[in-house]
Amino acid sequence: MDTSASHSIPRDVGWIEVVCGCMFSGKTEELIRRLRRAQIAKQKVAIFKPRIDKRYSAEHIVSHSDQSLVSTVVDDATEISRLAGDAQVIGIDEGQFFKANLVDVCESLANQGKRVIVAGLDQDYRGKPFEPMPQLLAIAEYITKTLAICVVCGNPADRTQRTTISSERVVVGAKDMYEARCRRCHQPLHD
Ligand code: ZN
User: Which domain, by its residues, includes 132?
Assistant: First the structure.
Protein backbone atom coordinates (compact mmCIF):
# COMPACT_ATOMS: atom_id res chain seq x y z
CA MET A 1 0.00 0.00 0.00
CA ASP A 2 1.22 3.48 -0.77
CA THR A 3 1.56 4.92 2.75
CA SER A 4 1.79 8.44 1.40
CA ALA A 5 -1.96 8.20 0.76
CA SER A 6 -2.81 6.92 4.24
CA HIS A 7 -4.22 10.26 5.28
CA SER A 8 -7.08 9.70 2.84
CA ILE A 9 -8.08 6.29 4.20
CA PRO A 10 -11.47 6.69 5.89
CA ARG A 11 -11.31 6.26 9.65
CA ASP A 12 -14.01 5.35 12.10
CA VAL A 13 -16.06 8.45 12.64
CA GLY A 14 -18.40 9.19 15.51
CA TRP A 15 -21.37 11.47 15.77
CA ILE A 16 -24.09 12.72 18.10
CA GLU A 17 -27.81 12.04 17.70
CA VAL A 18 -30.38 13.82 19.87
CA VAL A 19 -33.94 12.56 20.31
CA CYS A 20 -35.94 15.26 22.08
CA GLY A 21 -39.51 16.26 22.73
CA CYS A 22 -42.08 16.58 25.48
CA MET A 23 -43.23 13.84 27.82
CA PHE A 24 -45.28 11.02 26.23
CA SER A 25 -43.75 11.73 22.81
CA GLY A 26 -41.88 8.41 22.61
CA LYS A 27 -38.30 9.66 23.15
CA THR A 28 -37.20 6.67 25.20
CA GLU A 29 -38.96 4.23 22.87
CA GLU A 30 -37.04 5.75 19.96
CA LEU A 31 -33.76 5.54 21.92
CA ILE A 32 -34.45 1.89 22.74
CA ARG A 33 -35.32 1.15 19.11
CA ARG A 34 -32.01 2.57 17.88
CA LEU A 35 -29.99 0.78 20.56
CA ARG A 36 -31.71 -2.56 19.88
CA ARG A 37 -30.92 -2.29 16.19
CA ALA A 38 -27.25 -1.67 17.04
CA GLN A 39 -27.25 -4.71 19.35
CA ILE A 40 -28.77 -6.86 16.61
CA ALA A 41 -25.89 -5.72 14.38
CA LYS A 42 -23.52 -7.05 17.10
CA GLN A 43 -22.24 -3.59 17.95
CA LYS A 44 -21.13 -3.01 21.55
CA VAL A 45 -23.69 -0.81 23.25
CA ALA A 46 -23.45 0.99 26.61
CA ILE A 47 -26.47 2.71 28.13
CA PHE A 48 -26.52 5.33 30.85
CA LYS A 49 -29.05 7.36 32.76
CA PRO A 50 -28.78 9.90 35.58
CA ARG A 51 -29.43 8.82 39.14
CA ILE A 52 -32.24 11.34 39.61
CA ASP A 53 -34.62 9.16 37.65
CA LYS A 54 -35.64 6.50 40.18
CA ARG A 55 -38.93 5.45 38.65
CA TYR A 56 -39.71 1.83 37.84
CA SER A 57 -36.21 0.39 37.75
CA ALA A 58 -32.74 1.49 38.79
CA GLU A 59 -30.91 -0.63 36.23
CA HIS A 60 -33.04 -0.24 33.15
CA ILE A 61 -34.15 2.57 30.94
CA VAL A 62 -37.87 2.14 30.69
CA SER A 63 -40.28 3.82 28.35
CA HIS A 64 -43.87 4.51 29.29
CA SER A 65 -44.83 1.58 27.10
CA ASP A 66 -42.69 -0.70 29.29
CA GLN A 67 -39.92 -1.44 26.83
CA SER A 68 -36.63 -1.62 28.68
CA LEU A 69 -32.88 -2.13 28.28
CA VAL A 70 -30.24 -2.70 30.93
CA SER A 71 -28.51 0.57 31.78
CA THR A 72 -25.93 1.97 34.18
CA VAL A 73 -26.99 4.70 36.60
CA VAL A 74 -24.44 7.52 36.94
CA ASP A 75 -24.19 10.58 39.18
CA ASP A 76 -22.28 12.71 36.71
CA ALA A 77 -21.60 12.71 32.97
CA THR A 78 -17.86 12.23 33.56
CA GLU A 79 -18.66 8.69 34.69
CA ILE A 80 -19.97 7.97 31.20
CA SER A 81 -16.53 8.73 29.74
CA ARG A 82 -14.91 6.43 32.28
CA LEU A 83 -17.38 3.57 31.86
CA ALA A 84 -17.89 3.74 28.09
CA GLY A 85 -14.91 1.43 27.49
CA ASP A 86 -14.83 -0.01 24.00
CA ALA A 87 -18.58 0.43 23.37
CA GLN A 88 -19.24 1.62 19.83
CA VAL A 89 -22.68 3.00 20.59
CA ILE A 90 -23.46 5.07 23.71
CA GLY A 91 -27.10 5.60 24.71
CA ILE A 92 -28.01 8.27 27.25
CA ASP A 93 -31.55 8.71 28.55
CA GLU A 94 -33.03 11.72 30.41
CA GLY A 95 -30.26 13.99 29.13
CA GLN A 96 -31.93 17.05 30.66
CA PHE A 97 -31.12 15.78 34.15
CA PHE A 98 -27.37 15.95 33.54
CA LYS A 99 -25.25 19.03 34.19
CA ALA A 100 -23.70 21.19 31.48
CA ASN A 101 -20.64 18.94 31.28
CA LEU A 102 -22.75 16.35 29.41
CA VAL A 103 -22.07 18.39 26.26
CA ASP A 104 -18.27 18.04 26.51
CA VAL A 105 -18.58 14.36 27.39
CA CYS A 106 -20.71 13.66 24.31
CA GLU A 107 -18.37 15.69 22.11
CA SER A 108 -15.37 13.78 23.40
CA LEU A 109 -17.05 10.36 22.91
CA ALA A 110 -18.04 11.28 19.35
CA ASN A 111 -14.50 12.49 18.65
CA GLN A 112 -13.28 9.05 19.74
CA GLY A 113 -15.36 7.53 16.94
CA LYS A 114 -18.39 6.52 18.97
CA ARG A 115 -22.04 6.94 18.02
CA VAL A 116 -23.67 8.87 20.86
CA ILE A 117 -27.47 8.92 21.14
CA VAL A 118 -29.04 11.21 23.76
CA ALA A 119 -32.76 11.32 24.56
CA GLY A 120 -34.25 14.06 26.71
CA LEU A 121 -36.80 16.78 27.30
CA ASP A 122 -36.02 19.85 25.20
CA GLN A 123 -38.39 22.08 27.24
CA ASP A 124 -39.31 22.26 30.89
CA TYR A 125 -42.93 22.43 32.10
CA ARG A 126 -42.98 26.18 31.40
CA GLY A 127 -41.96 25.62 27.80
CA LYS A 128 -38.45 26.98 28.40
CA PRO A 129 -35.34 25.31 26.89
CA PHE A 130 -34.11 22.65 29.29
CA GLU A 131 -30.31 22.78 29.62
CA PRO A 132 -28.11 21.11 28.60
CA MET A 133 -30.34 19.87 25.75
CA PRO A 134 -30.21 23.14 23.71
CA GLN A 135 -26.39 23.08 23.76
CA LEU A 136 -26.44 19.41 22.77
CA LEU A 137 -28.82 20.13 19.89
CA ALA A 138 -26.42 22.76 18.58
CA ILE A 139 -23.50 20.34 18.25
CA ALA A 140 -25.44 17.21 17.21
CA GLU A 141 -25.21 15.84 13.67
CA TYR A 142 -28.72 14.37 13.79
CA ILE A 143 -31.78 15.73 15.56
CA THR A 144 -35.17 14.06 15.95
CA LYS A 145 -38.03 15.90 17.59
CA THR A 146 -40.72 13.54 18.73
CA LEU A 147 -44.26 14.88 19.11
CA ALA A 148 -47.02 13.66 21.37
CA ILE A 149 -50.75 14.30 20.95
CA CYS A 150 -52.37 17.16 22.85
CA VAL A 151 -54.75 15.70 25.43
CA VAL A 152 -56.96 18.80 25.15
CA CYS A 153 -57.44 19.25 21.40
CA GLY A 154 -55.70 16.36 19.65
CA ASN A 155 -53.18 18.50 17.75
CA PRO A 156 -49.48 17.54 17.64
CA ALA A 157 -48.04 18.39 21.07
CA ASP A 158 -44.50 19.51 21.89
CA ARG A 159 -45.06 20.83 25.44
CA THR A 160 -45.30 19.21 28.84
CA GLN A 161 -48.13 20.49 31.01
CA ARG A 162 -47.68 20.08 34.74
CA THR A 163 -50.99 19.23 36.35
CA THR A 164 -49.81 19.52 39.94
CA ILE A 165 -48.94 22.59 42.01
CA SER A 166 -45.16 22.94 42.17
CA SER A 167 -42.61 25.47 40.98
CA GLU A 168 -39.75 22.97 41.15
CA ARG A 169 -38.25 22.57 37.72
CA VAL A 170 -38.01 18.85 38.14
CA VAL A 171 -40.70 16.73 39.73
CA VAL A 172 -39.62 13.19 39.02
CA GLY A 173 -42.03 10.36 38.97
CA ALA A 174 -45.72 9.94 38.56
CA LYS A 175 -46.68 10.43 34.97
CA ASP A 176 -50.15 11.44 36.08
CA MET A 177 -48.60 14.76 37.19
CA TYR A 178 -47.95 15.68 33.56
CA GLU A 179 -49.69 15.66 30.23
CA ALA A 180 -48.77 16.52 26.66
CA ARG A 181 -50.20 19.76 25.27
CA CYS A 182 -49.85 21.73 22.05
CA ARG A 183 -48.65 25.33 21.92
CA ARG A 184 -52.21 26.64 22.04
CA CYS A 185 -53.38 24.56 24.99
CA HIS A 186 -50.20 24.71 27.09
CA GLN A 187 -50.49 26.90 30.19
CA PRO A 188 -46.94 27.76 31.27
CA LEU A 189 -48.08 29.72 34.35
CA HIS A 190 -50.37 26.97 35.52
CA ASP A 191 -48.95 27.13 39.05
ZN1 ZN B 1 -54.03 21.47 22.09
Answer: 11-147
